[in-house]
Amino acid sequence: MSPDSPAVLAEGLTKRFASFTAVDHLDLRIEKGEVVGFIGPNGAGKSTTIRMLCGLLRPSEGRASVAGFDVGRQPEEVREHIGYMSQKFSLYGDLTVRENLRFFAGIYRVPHHDLGERMRFAISMAGLEGREDVLVRTLAGGWKQRLALGCAILHRPPILFLDEPTSGVEPEARRRFWDLIHELAAGGVAILVSTHYMEEAEYCNRIALIDGGRLVAMGTPSELRQRSLGGDLFEVDCVPLGAALKALGSAQGVVEAAIFGDKLHIVLGQGGLSAEELPRFLAEREIRVGSVRPATPSLEDVFVRLVSTTRETRAAS
Amino acid sequence: MMAEVNEIAVRVHGLSKSFGSVRAVRDIDLAVAQGEIFGLVGPDGAGKTTIMRMLAAVLRPDAGEILVDGVDVVAEAERAKLHLSYMPQRFGLYEDLTIAENIFFYGALFGVPRGERIARSQELLEAAGLLPFRRRLAGQLSGGMKQKLGLICALIHTPRVLLLDEPTTGVDPVSRRDFWAILYNLREGGVTIVLSTAYMDEAERCSRLALLHGGEIRHCDTPQHLKAAMPGALLAIASAHPRDVREAVSGKPGVLGALLMGDRVHVRVDDAERRIPELRAAIADQGIADAVITPAEPGIEDVFVALLGEEKPHEP
Questions:
Q1: What DSSP character marks residue A135?
Q2: Residue A97's domain spans which residues?
Q3: The domain spanning residue A88 has which CATH number?
Q4: CATH number of the domain residue A258 falls in
Q5: How many CB atoms lie within 10 A of CB B231?
Q6: Alpha-carbon distance A125 to A145, whole Å?
Q7: Are residues A136 and A108 in the same domain?
Q8: How high is the mean pLDDT of chain B?
Q9: What is the mean pLDDT of the segment spanning A13-17?
């Protein structure tokens, strides 16, 4: 891989299964040292794309290179240069920490004279010093997960694929895990994280949002938050919520209205109802209003908005 | 704004359960008011599923009392099952039956009279947006649609209390939002909902939360009050060089934690007013010019970490 070439480059990447197009002319570029979130609903084409990028599935059309190797023509080389970790860490519960590492080092063909040093690195990264001979099944979730990461990078891959890596682990453990990911990225590793959990997306430098096999949006979390909602988000504290939702759903200028906990989240666009007019508008409909305040949209707000507008546009065309 | 105080739909006192030497649930007290959406929040292994199964009368507690809709769940499990409905993580749908057939089957199982079953399933299918798909085999549904079908089956006998164990795990955000819209509708109809989740962002949608850790309820309150109870204040520092920003602020006086996000750093400080200028200076000292510091609203995850800290390497 030449020093300035991207770690992952996909151009017009397409996969068809009979008459179904799972991935539809996808363009994607990931630089070295970048953490990119690959976000989309179930069936959006995330796994199919990753399987093509891992050299496990041949593209029907278009091309992709990973670590400088073509995924269609050099799948073996591609596989030697990537690490993969999924939500269901493929660790062996009945083996010890050390035995698991040795097993994966064998699979990844880590040279014998590097083995000691690589294993020490993985153990210290996972915070498992002094627990090398503990059975993996007795470890708590966060430790298992960091060990799985250690196993996935034993062969020092320049590119790492993570599939919903932190679902279900302790929040503090999740944070430690992401610290490790960012450390790897600082060392030049390119990382693609596929997930539909927005909590994980927040940790990515950039996010690629896909739906129906196509790239819907790409940008930093802040960029997506700012440009995608089609208006400003407000949190409205009012009673009863159901009636308020109904009234606002059909009001001029309301781009989106949804119940969120005991409050309403509404997006106000241009040229309609303003935030100042809201309390009176609702009071006239016999809805009691406690407060209206601007809110920061979550990535989930953004995701839902982007996916539904693209779907509407596609349905209309 | 809370609705008027209602009667208690679920009351739990001194609930405990062990599996061998593992104390999965330790002396839990709970009171859920009618019409609440109450969230049990915690990571895998915190005891969520064990509590749910005891509330649902499918697992006998070692100690403690459970009243659901006034019925003693431990003493009168069968009667309690008429008042509640339980949707486990893997709801038993028959994949080779259609949507309509699955609903009909569960209706029969719960003893719902035939005429009522038809009317009720029509109404539920419509509310869930599944009416056009009623002849589709359950095995051919997406994850989100399966969850909705599971919910309909659980609602066919019009229960007063609905128990949902991690209902949206593996469901994408769009379907998740639809699912929640159904839950809010049910609540307006007076149904009390207790659900468990490992997802902190989802927890924010509940009216009240119990933060679970190691089989114990460590904190229980509304999302707003939990956030207000978080020690210190949260700041977001946006920059094109978040890694350098974190380096610059870590370990500075008053900094309780610094979390590296994709395009910013979240810093928890003891006193925002006092620390913002200090942090601004520390960042400028490192030659970072683009950093913008703004107060940030903590999420439930921030609260969880601040209040509960880190797990032990071994399961207890």
A1: B
A2: 8-219
A3: 3.40.50.300
A4: 3.30.70.100
A5: 10
A6: 11
A7: yes
A8: 90
A9: 96
Q: Please state the separation of Cα B242 from the chain's center in Å.
A: 31
- Which member of B204, B260, B305 has the closest CB to residue A182? B260
CATH architecture of B231-297: 2-Layer Sandwich (3.30)
Q: How many CB atoms lie within 10 A of CB A111?
A: 9
Do A196 and B173 make contact, defined as CB atoms within 8 angstroms?
A: yes
- Nearest CB among A220, A239, A296 relative to B262 is that of A220
Q: Would the CATH topology of B8-227 be identical to that of B231-297?
A: no
- CB contacts of A127 in chain B (<8 Å) are 313
**Highest mean pLDDT (candidates A197-206, B51-60, B167-176):** B51-60
Q: Do the chains contact at B172 and A42, CB–CB below 8 Å?
A: yes
What residue type is assigned to position B103 of the chain? I
Instruction: State the ipTM, two decimals.
Output: 0.77
pLDDT in tens, A219-271: 999 888 877 778 888 999 998 888 898 899 888 989 888 887 778 889 898 88
> Which positions in chain A touch B222 (Cβ < 8 Å)?
262
Q: What is the average per-residue pLDDT within A129-143?
A: 90
Q: Number of folded domains in chain A? A: 2
Question: What is the fold, at CATH topology level, of the domain defined by B8-227?
Answer: Rossmann fold (3.40.50)
Global confidence as pTM = 0.84
Q: Does B313 touch chain A (CB under 8 A)?
A: yes
| Tens digit of each residue's pLDDT (9 = 90 or more) over B9-19 | 999 999 999 99
* B257-269 residues labelled b (16+ CB within 10 A) or e (exposed): bbbbbbbbbbbbb
**Beta partners for A291?**
A237
